[in-house]
Amino acid sequence: MNRCDCDLTGRVVIPADPLYNEARQGFNQALQQYPLIIVYCRNRCDISNAVIWSRAYNVPLRIRSGGHNYEGYSNGNCTLVIDVSEMNEISLDESRNILHVQSGATNGQIYQFISSRGYPFPGGTCPTVGICGYATGGGWGLSCRWLGLGCDSLEEIELVNDKGCILKASRDCNSNLFWACRGAGGGNFGIVTAMKFQLPPKVDFVTLIEIDYLHVTAAEQEAFLQVWQSWLPEADPRATLIARVYNSPTDGLAMLVRGIFYGNESEAQTLMQPFLTLPCARSRFEYITFLEAVTIIGSGYPPYEKFEAVSRYALREWTPEEIAGLVRLIREPAQGSVFAGLSLYALGGRVAEIPQEETAFYYRNALFIVWLETIWEDRSFQQENQKWINDRFPDLADVTVGAYINFPYNRLPNYLEEYFGTHVCRLREIKERYDPCNVFTFPQGIWGAAQLPDPPTGMAVYHEDIPLGHPGASLSRGFRYV
To answer: What pLDDT is stored for residue 463 in this prediction?
Structure first.
């Protein structure tokens, strides 16, 4: 493409705009990135125009919905960020129990909409996460053992392709693309504009499970992990839980369990007895509506954080010695850390019942997802906390496999195999067919991306490779990044 026959449409934010600093921020504020332009698209035409514009002027694009990519891959320096968060219409075909959502809708918006009509939904725990990135990356949530992953309910995807045209993908149309968009993550094959989900049967109430253990010993954390891995394989699939061992200034060494059970309170208490008999257990069981349960769980998420993390999968039980080693990982937090934790996200149940080749999500036989993280507040401690994760990664990798694409880590060796296992070859073939010029790219994309240099803080940033007649030149020259 030598020229552009269309302009950017939608709401355009450039570095000179008073809203720019707020608009460029993602959820993980440890990452400070400076796009050339952010365009908030309001319809498919805006998205199509943005794709054509980015190709015509050779400006790399990034795709953003909720802005929760933990490594900032939905953002970038000197890029065109195509933000779909203002495309968030939701509707329901009750005759077929089909939910229609635009790609900018969030977990919280969907929960509010469907719960008023009596439905649950296999969404995520954080209310501000965009449904598009969540579901295309697989979609772990607190209903997955009973209702499946988020991607398992997908019936159809509409997207803008590398030429700015509209495509639809389902089991009967562009089926390879549909397969890839259920587990390979967003941003690789096109820009999703809308999705259709098959809703599960209606439910009146679920049981919210919350158990806390504060100011415990390392030995008690080890016993907790042993209970977890012994309990999970035979647990009622109606229950999906997060378990966590952590270390914080307020709680000391501690543990917690959070989850949803699709049954009554009495059944839930019986199910959770192995956890309730551990010392220091403080429990809460409430038989409430699905919306009340996900709202309570979601209320624990802040609007943003500064953190570094790495994810893995557990394919087998850990030995007592391995459990002790994992507990030691959080014994001494990094300087400036306000939270260091090892979280376990239950799999099994419906997740494991679906054949591995049915979707691009590869690790269906895993017992649970493992997530090691550290959080800090003072930016001066960022390097120490990032090093803390990097130093501990080898020990975690020794007893785990792979990585969850929705919890990315930028230092993964052989990242494609880590995220997608033996599905990599098929994903590369699909990428070649639907995006041969690698228009949809980011540092850990199917074909990767050349990372642009970081802009100098507090200095004028010039883009000498952009011709003076290029619209981006007039937008970028002379602006200061702060």
So the answer is: 34
| Domain map (residue ranges) of the chain | 11-85+452-476, 90-198, 206-288+305-412
Contact 150, 107 (CB under 8 A): no
CATH of domain 11-85+452-476: 3.30.43.10
For Cα atoms 90, 354, 424, give the angle at the middle one, nearest 5 degrees.
90
Q: Helix, strand, or coil here: 235?
A: coil
The topology (CATH level 3) of 90-198 is 3.30.465
Do 106 and 129 form a contact (C-beta atoms < 8 A)?
Answer: yes
Point out which residues pair with 310 in neighbouring strands.
Answer: 372
* CA gap 127, 394 in Å, rounded: 32
The torsion region of residue 174 among left (phi > 0), alpha (psi -120 to 50) and beta comes to: left
247: three-class secondary structure by DSSP: strand
Per-residue confidence (pLDDT) for residue 476, from 0 to 100: 37
Distances (CA, A) of 364 to 112, 228, 355: 29, 19, 8
* Class of the CATH domain delimited by 206-288+305-412: alpha beta
- Per-residue burial over 179-211, b if 16 or more Cβ lie within 10 Å, else e, is bbbbbbbbbbbbbbbbbbbebbeebebbbbbeb
Q: Distances in Å between the alpha carbon of 94 and those of 148, 154, 434?
A: 21, 16, 33
Residue 449 pLDDT level (bands cut at 50, 70, 90): low
Residue 293: predicted pLDDT: 98
> What does the alpha-carbon distance between residue 299 and residue 127 come to, in Å, rounded to a whole number?
8
Do 40 and 81 contact (CB within 8 A), yes or no? no
Q: What is the overall mean pLDDT for the chain?
A: 92
Segment 138-183, tens digit of pLDDT: 999 999 999 999 999 999 999 999 999 999 999 999 999 999 999 9
Q: What is the pLDDT of residue 5?
A: 58
Burial grade of 421 (CB within 10 A; 0-12, 13-18, 19 or more): middle
Tens digit of pLDDT for each residue in 392-436? 999 999 999 999 999 999 999 999 999 999 999 999 999 999 999
Report the pLDDT averaged over residues 232-248: 98
